[in-house]
Amino acid sequence: MRFASPGLLWLLLLVPVLGAGMFLAARRRRRLLERFAAGAGHASRFLGEVSPHVRIAKALLLLLAVAAGVLAAARPQWGTRLETVNRKGLDVVLAVDTSQSMAARDVAPDRLGQARHAAASLVDRLGGDRVALVTFAGQASLACPLTLDQEAVKILLDALDVEIVPVAGTALADALRVGTQAFGPSPSGGAMRGRALVLFTDGEDHEGGVEEMAKSLRTSGIALYAVGCGTQRGAPIPVSSGEGASEYKKDAENRIVTTRLDESLLEKLALETGGSYFRATPAEMEVEEIAKSVSGMEASEAGTVLKTLYEERYQVPLAVALAALVGEMLIADRKRRRR
Predict the structure, then answer these.
(1) How far apart (Å, rounded) are the C-alpha atoms in residues 280 and 263?
(2) Is residue 337 in a domain?
């Protein structure tokens, strides 16, 4: 058995409180009656008019009604059935750059932190759409396939780090390839509708081949949204030394390497794929724009899924509560006099 609203079960704690209140009210009523009758001896004449056992039974019925009413409000459920549901929705793949340059702190807290937060904010705005996660540095990998469990995607986003991909570098084309594969095969009738690839990166690319992948995205009907993380002023790349101290990456001539946001590549990529480019901002207005654009896409038929539905059984405790209330009202606490 389960409850659809288990939080309401905390109201059951009020039942003993209500019982204690009824007990104290009965004692106070007895003391007031004794004061009115000028002593306990005279009060017994009035107390003999009612049955104390019946009053206790009426109080217990009232408490039972309250407890059963709370259980009914919590909606107990037991027994399941399977129902076939035709799902329509959008498929969104998030590709997050985890290369060393994303550790630069020209934005707060750093580029990767900004990308993680923006991606999580976008997931919150997607509603019931399926989401996948791709991470890439020197190579790309599918961290999470398309799923409706958006909380799981957010947990994976929170765990991203610049050292999560062991191969150094930035393979932007490989990220686009793995992101395209994450959608699955296109139907034979043409390009699938309702597919978007959102790229969070600083635009650095060390492998090439981006132009060919851009053509593939456009052919597949995948809308590309590129989000640039960082600034054109740039910043050095922090690296961890063996003693845990922070240093900066240096080139062969022992000069500190500065990484800068390459907006030209991202703008060109968005233009060739018919998508849009945005620079990441602290207010995350770009996330709002992407969410609006994605929500305006035509949803595609994503097949049928089996949904488990639980049978509602709130009628049982509700019937008990009503019966207890009716019983409490019908039972008279006055003693019947013998003729």
Answers:
(1) 11
(2) no
Q: Are residues 135 and 265 in the same domain?
A: yes
Report if residue 211 sits inside a domain. Answer: yes
Residue 190 confidence (pLDDT): 46
Give the C-alpha separation, 326 to 315, whole Å: 16
Q: Which of 241, 186, 240 is nearest to 216 (CA)?
A: 186
Q: How many domains does the chain have?
A: 2
Clarify whether residues 185 and 57 are in a common domain: no
pLDDT tens digit sequence for 277-321: 999 999 999 999 999 988 887 665 555 555 677 889 999 999 999
Q: How far is the C-alpha of 154 from the C-alpha of 141, rounded, in Å?
A: 17
Q: 């990998």: which residue's tokens?
A: 141
pTM over 0.70: no
Same domain, residue pair 296 and 318: no
Lookup: tokens for 6:
């288990």
pLDDT digit string, tens, across residues 139-163? 899 999 999 888 999 999 999 988 7
Cβ(147)–Cβ(153) below 8 Å:
yes
